[in-house]
Every structure is written in C-alpha cells, then in structure tokens.
Specification:
single chain; 13-stranded antiparallel sheet; alpha+beta
C-alpha cells in the first residue's frame, strides 16, 4: 500500500513525549480524512455483524458467544431478549460484555467477505508505515504482530472492567481506532481507565478518526451506551503482540 494513510502533519516527537508520560495516548485526526471516511462508511453500512458476549456457561473451550445475522433472525425477538436478560444478570456479578463484533483477521483467513473494505484496513495495519508509527510513538519495537476486530456498540451494549491480560500471547499494547461521528458524552460508550483502587484516571469520549494507544495490562472498560443514543458507536481494536 504505497499511499501514506497516516496524517503527515502529526508531531511524532510531541506524541512520544505524551505517551512516555502516562503509557497511553489519544491521537486525533490520525488518518487521512478520505481513508477514515471510507472505513466509517463500511462500518456503518456493510459489515455482517455478529452479536458477541462472554460465555460463562460454555460446554466447549470457546469463551466468546457469537450469533450471525441469520442466527439472530432465527432466534427471534423473544430469544434475543432472553439472551440479553441472561447477559445483564451475569454482568451484575462478574465480567461480561455485549456488543456487535466482526473478526477481520479471521475473516481473511477463512476467505469470508473478500470485498469488504475492512480488509483494506487490515492490510494497512500490517504495513511498515503503521508499525513504524507505533514504534516511534511508543518507543516499543518488540512486537511483530497485530490483530484486528471491528466493534459496534448499540444502545444497551457495554464492556465491563478488564485488563487485557492473556495467557496465550505476549500483548504489548492495545489500540482503538474510533470511527464514531457526532458523539456526545451523555450517549455513554465512554472508555474509562481505572487504578487498582477503582478510581477513574481517564475518561475518553469517542472521537471520529482518533487512535487510543495504551500499554497493557491496565484496567479499563466501556460504559453502557444510552437507550437514547441516536446511532451506534463504531471502532476497530486489537493488540500489538509478540510472536516468536
């Protein structure tokens, strides 16, 4: 991908200083506008979203519950309402989440939805341009892989507190590219970072064409989207990891 897709006007030195100060940063207007617009359009209109939640009562080793659009239609409104009530009841006592998801990397591996413009974003994530940018901002060059998940939070959707720890891979940093237009803090869907005592250290409102980058593990969550939110919250997220 020859075209430069990261905003060339960004001050890398200033960004690195901010990241080193706290181990996280939000960079606004991070992508060229036309590229950000393309991805926003895809997320808003073209993605075959799967409803996702954490499976506590699983019979297999799979921890993620997923329902394709066809499976959601087959389940019907009553079945979906029952599932949501179950998820909400669990969320009152333990880790849980509910949102629409699309695993871009898995889709490429399985040859699914080849014409989806999100595949262009996945290709961008693997470029020297993006890896070099992340290395310059973070000062970390030990990662050699990145994954990619698209997320859509509709009213009622949320992600409870967690720290992004994983026994299966060496996660160096998490990233969130936001593609949500015209969002107000009253709509919810806020990313909050907490200390070990439960105090909020940062609270981020989704901003269109922004990147939040942070070291892991760190406690964070996404607050529930309000019932009156006029549209969904869209993002692309994942981790920069080490694979030996």
């Amino acid at each position: 991908m020859a075209t430069q897709l990261i905003n060339p006007a960004l001050d890398i030195g200033a960004l690195r200083a901010r990241f080193q100060e706290r181990g996280r940063i939000t960079i606004e207007q991070v992508l060229r506008p036309e590229f950000a617009d393309t991805i926003h359009t895809c997320l808003a209109h073209d993605v075959p979203w799967r409803l996702a939640w954490y499976r506590h009562d699983r019979e297999s080793e799979e921890t993620v519950g997923r329902l394709t659009p066809a499976e959601q239609e087959a389940l019907g409104p009553e079945g979906l309402a029952d599932l949501e009530r179950k998820v909400m009841a669990e969320a009152g006592e333990k880790f849980q989440y509910l949102y629409d998801a699309y695993d871009v990397l898995k889709a490429r591996r399985e040859g699914l939805d080849p014409g989806l413009r999100l595949q262009e974003f996945l290709s961008f994530l693997g470029t020297d341009e993006l890896f070099g940018f992340i290395e310059e901002v973070s000062g970390d060059s030990a990662f050699n892989r990145v994954d990619c998940h698209a997320c859509r939070y509709r009213p009622g959707h949320f992600l409870r507190q967690h720290a992004d720890r994983s026994p299966f891979e060496q996660r160096h940093m998490a990233y969130v590219f936001q593609f949500t237009r015209d969002w107000h803090l009253d709509f919810g869907g806020l990313t909050t970072f907490q200390d070990e005592s439960g105090h909020i250290e940062d609270c981020l409102v989704p901003r269109f064409n922004s990147l939040t980058l942070f070291k892991v593990p760190v406690l964070h969550s996404v607050s529930q989207v309000a019932a009156y939110a006029p549209h969904a919250r869209h993002s692309i997220t994942g981790w920069f990891t080490r694979y030996d």
